[in-house]
Amino acid sequence: MERKRRQDRGQGQEQAHQGRAKARGEAGGGGQGSGTALELLVHGVGGSSPQEMLDDPRTVRVTGDDVAAVFRRTEDADAETRPADYRDKPVPEAYVWCNLTSGDATRALWLLLLPFMVVNLAHWMRPAVTGRIRTVRLYGLLVRLAGLTLTVLLVGAAAEVALDLAAWQCAGTAACAGGHSWLGFLSPAESGWWSAPGRRLTVAALVPAALTGLLWYLSLRTWRAYESQQPMERVDGPQGGAGCSALGRPGFWYGRRLVARLRAAHTAAGLLTVAAGLAVPAARFDRRAGGPAVLGLAGWLLQAGLVTGAVVVVGVVCRRGRGERFLDRTLDVHLVRRLPLAALALLLLAAVYAGWARPGWASAGRLPGDAVFGGLAATQGLLVVALAVVAHLLHRTAPDPRAAMRGLGGPAVAMLACALGGVMSGGVAQRVSDWLDGTGTSLAGPPVLLTWQASVIPPLLLVVLAVCALLARRTWARARAERAAVTGDHPDEAADAGRTRRIATARAMAGLTDRVPLLVTVVATTTFLLGMGALAGALVTDRTPAEAAEGTYAVLQGAARTGQAVGSWLIGVGFILFVTWGRRAYKDASARRTIGILWDVGTFWPRAAHPFAPPCYAERAVPDLTWRMATWTRATGGRLVLSGHSQGSVLAAAAAWQLEPSARGRVALLTYGSPLERLYGRWFPAHFGPASLASLHREIDCWRNLYRLTDPIGGPVRLPGDCGPEVDREALKDPLSYGRTTEHPLPAPILGHGDYQADPAFAEERRRLLGRLRPDVPAPRPDEDGPGTVPGADGGAHGCAGRSSA
């Protein structure tokens, strides 16, 4: 009840505040208000409470809902009516969006969608290039096709477990079915109606079909809950041109049409995969000599329908992707509705066809899944190679020395997504096979390729450990080198070996972020080579007679069996840890928050390559920030500092790109602990590369960036000198004091990525940004700033020379 009263009181204050703002806008023409300044704070990864952000236990919600909202201190709720009280300070507001990523315990299960999220990231890692539209579209097409193979792989793995291992092998074997009473009604020993092989497969098909339906439902529900917020209408038309980021286009954060189209295609692909698992074994039996002609013809017609459906699905995925230059509200209603329904109809026909009585049909061996998984692995390898060629061509057109892996970050991440899908599929199949048949003698087991994929895990782990050892050695060497730099930063203080070592180690550990491209390069390359080796090994094993394997291939088979045993054990342990972590998140809020941090980084981008990926929170957060800034500046005519920390700085930059020029002229950007260039600029150069960040610097009125050498996430923006005044301030001191001083009588902590507002430089930069935004007061000259002024604090050095974008 108390929470409800606070919400009602906050909503009443919001309405009163909006009414007063509207009245001031009508009286003053909408552009000449009280001159009140606003600081809109946006938190970073991990989330924060409004009380922590505003440093006050009494807060009120100004606008928003329980998912994402803007808060103020209670005493600041009506600040616009008391401009005299805020003449020398801004009104702080906090935009809290952490519930978009870590507010619900069930989101821990989104870890199971990790391969889909990773392949979606690969779509946005395209190298920056001007022109070459067809090559750019080819890049997106290849990533979308890779995403489609992951959907087929996941549903195919579920079908392998349910149809092949459980219904075909275990239920069809008396020893295995006797050990699992829940399979008794499917066992031929019971001679029940469901014991026929086709009917057993029909019952088991409910599992992968239900999984496909669940993925469809989650994609639709999360779209309605998180991504259905429409961006603000713009009258300035589409933003674009040389050097401009696509994040400024009106339709960038509203991909409803593409997500709906891909959702229909992937749902149909999943249902067709299940239908093929039912129809193909029955059709193979009907094609035997002397089989019924009617069933044989029906099998051919059904398989032709499945092939036709697969061609249509691929065609839908190959259609052009996102339309970002305008707000596209249209929807391909007929396609979105009819394609999944047509696939469902084929699935029902396949169930009827497979369940038809066939005397003499008995389950033996494995279902024909080896060719399916082998074909998927080969297709994914070819797609990754083609994607690497396209990415190299794009990068060579406009080389960016800071781009991760020389523009090959997208293909590498796509390779990792395929590897994650293969490991998860193989791990589940291997674990279920071992559970159903503990002795390993009565069942044929999963397809050969899935067992060979387990054998590549031990050598891959050895390579990863070797790279980690190399990075640890380099970090240790850098920490030793940093000790001299730390001592040089504090020449007038007594040296403390332990304090110096801790600061130097923090700086060296922060530098590990810049080594991530090396790790990804080695892991992706090794994974690709081992994956192709596993595919070749599976083909050789499948086609080699048992007697030949005893001689020529004895050594290879022995090593492979050892690797498979170790890899299967590692997969089992990893899968148990994976599920345990997800279950723990139901009861542990800290675990939910940790998982939320992973999604803060991985789900920033819209779902452009895979509709079943976790939802994009930025499609809600960016319109929220844009609406708040535009309406507040329009109603009050005041100045606004958009203050973003960590991932919040990325949201702030994206929202600033979405503003109209008339609103940008009253907004300054203050970023701190920002990964804009260090992570996003290197891994997503097409959208956060040097040209894009330079365009943001030119378009927004003023921008300052703060960072520390001990920060593992944030870093300088590194804008070139020809794009205007400097944005980066010199690296902040961390810790604020080396030893004990009058201001810091106790040892100052090493802050790293957090608590930037505790540094006096934060308030100083905010004050100067507000001074540059003031229309009637000129910026102070360097000699008027007083003692303690950083050299170059005037507009010429700080990038806030009062440029107007209006």
Summarize the structure.
The protein is mostly helical. The chain is 58% helix and 5% strand.
Protein model, in words:
The chain is built from 28 helices and seven strands. Helix 4 (114-124) packs antiparallel against helix 5, helix 5 (133-170) packs across helix 9 (256-286) and helix 5 runs parallel beside helix 13. A seven-stranded mixed β-sheet has the order 2-3-4-1-5-6-7, sandwiched between helices. It has a domain at 2-101 and 617-798: Rossmann fold. It has 806 residues and is mainly α. 58% of the residues lie in helices and 5% in strands.
Name its key features.
mainly alpha; membrane; 28 helices; disordered N terminus; 806 residues; transmembrane helix; transmembrane; AB_hydrolase_fold; 7-stranded mixed β-sheet; Integral membrane protein
Element layout with pairings:
Blueprint: H1 2-28, E1 37-42, H2 50-54, E2 59-64, E3 69-73, E4 91-96, H3 99-102, H4 114-124, H5 133-170, H6 174-178, H7 197-204, H8 206-227, H9 256-286, H10 293-318, H11 333-354, H12 370-397, H13 409-436, H14 448-455, H15 457-489, H16 497-510, H17 516-543, H18 546-551, H19 554-587, H20 589-602, H21 618-636, E5 639-645, H22 647-658, H23 661-664, E6 667-672, H24 676-683, H25 685-688, H26 690-699, E7 702-706, H27 760-773, H28 795-798
Parallel strand pairs: 1-4, 1-5, 5-6, 6-7
Antiparallel strand pairs: 2-3, 3-4
Helix pairs in contact: 1-21, 4-5, 4-13, 5-7, 5-8, 5-9, 5-12, 5-13, 7-11, 8-9, 9-10, 9-11, 10-11, 12-13, 12-17, 13-14, 13-17, 13-19, 14-17, 14-19, 15-16, 15-17, 19-20, 21-22
